[in-house]
Amino acid sequence: MIRAGTYRNAVTFLILLMFAVAVRARDFGNPSIHVDEQFYLLVGDRMLHGALPYLDIWDRKPIGLFLLFAGMRLLPGDGILAYQLVATLCAALTGLIVALGARRLGARPLGVLLAGCAYILWLSFLSGRGGQSPVYYNLLMAAGGYLTLCLPERARHGKIGAILASGMVACLLAGLAIQIKYTPLVEGAFFGIAHLWYLHRAGARIALTIGAGMLWATLGIAPTLAAILYFKAQGAAAFDAFWFSNFTSIALRRGYPAGKIAARLAGSAAQLSPFVLAAAMARRFSDRDEALAICFAWLAAALIAFAMIGAFFDHYALPLLGPLAMIAGPALGRSRLAQGLAAAAALILAVFHLSTERDYRTSIYTAARVIEAHSATGCPYVFAGDSVLYVLARACVPTRYAFPSTLAYAAEQGATGTDEAAEVRRILARRPPVIVTLDAPLSPWNTASKAVIDAALQRDYSLALSQWREEEHLLVYVRHDPPARR
Prior knowledge:
By secondary structure, this protein is mainly alpha-helical. The protein is 65% helix and 5% strand. It has 21 helices and four strands. The protein starts with a helix and ends in a 7-residue tail after the last strand.
């Protein structure tokens, strides 16, 4: 016989999965959702052809993220629908864990379901409607957070063995998440500390508690240690590239203007305000004070991680959604005010995002066809625009700095480990048959690199295609005299 709880959870998951598909289906197959996930797909694709991240194709993200996209690239198709379907499944599964967490905080059945649905919906509002990295690792962190919420009950019953196992799983999950993005380190540390406290509360001896802490810390750092050892084994060049990309270059990036930071923070805060209100009402509608305190502490850890990088793009707030939605569950199940404000905010935000987030898949696929038609003789160069064009055009990449902003934009100048303008000159010396750029930058140009590109375009290239891309045009230039076939 299927237990009632298992049946109830299965029904909840099916509802959340159908809701996730309904919310995200409009973007299935759309390669233009966000430049970040385009690049993750490109790296995953090239890894399957032997490229080594950091040495052959450069970025700062941990290797686990690229391994994830390489795995999804093995699925049928060009990889775009594959990563989006996996992201949808992850969103639904995370929504289920959020719902279970809300139930543990005392939410009624309606609040349980609304908490899960709100998590899924607000992912899309905060640029998580595709495959941003938190869409995947939030599943791991939500599971770790839920295990931590179970600690008070286990400590009361003296379940030392269960707490030991829970700590192992929670810290390993956090360690895996850290290899998708490094910021979950803060939340993972909180999970470990909370497990230590409740292990002590359950009556464990000091020696066992210390040993457990050492074991959990080892599991938390194991995935990152494995990555370090792997690149160490690849030789000095690979290890140096890995270390610089992952741990040194981030400190070399230029900061963003204070006005832009303030605008990003205001936008994220406004979109999260229904959760904040419901969270403020949580103690009024829940008598699970200890579990609530744990969830608020988890939220505080997630806020520290959110602030660590300092760029404050809206998708950096995605890890806040798990604990926020759980905390909001009790109020969403009982308060008409919380329900009404959440519904009104959802409607307003849906209208805003649907009216402003245009679908540029036609532009990108058209550009890819032009690039493919002219790239039989060499590697095209995407100076600014969409790195997924390399995948869709089945083209080679002329530089390890394939993420366009790395060489094109001022924020990266001096932070890449190379002279960006010199690298652009090196690429152009190979006479790429096609160059892709934008007529207006998404961020201030690296003026030295831009001058090199402009001179080459004026001298050697003709505009073959201009397509709308957000507030600017995606421009495809074809060389007058393409190099001979190699």
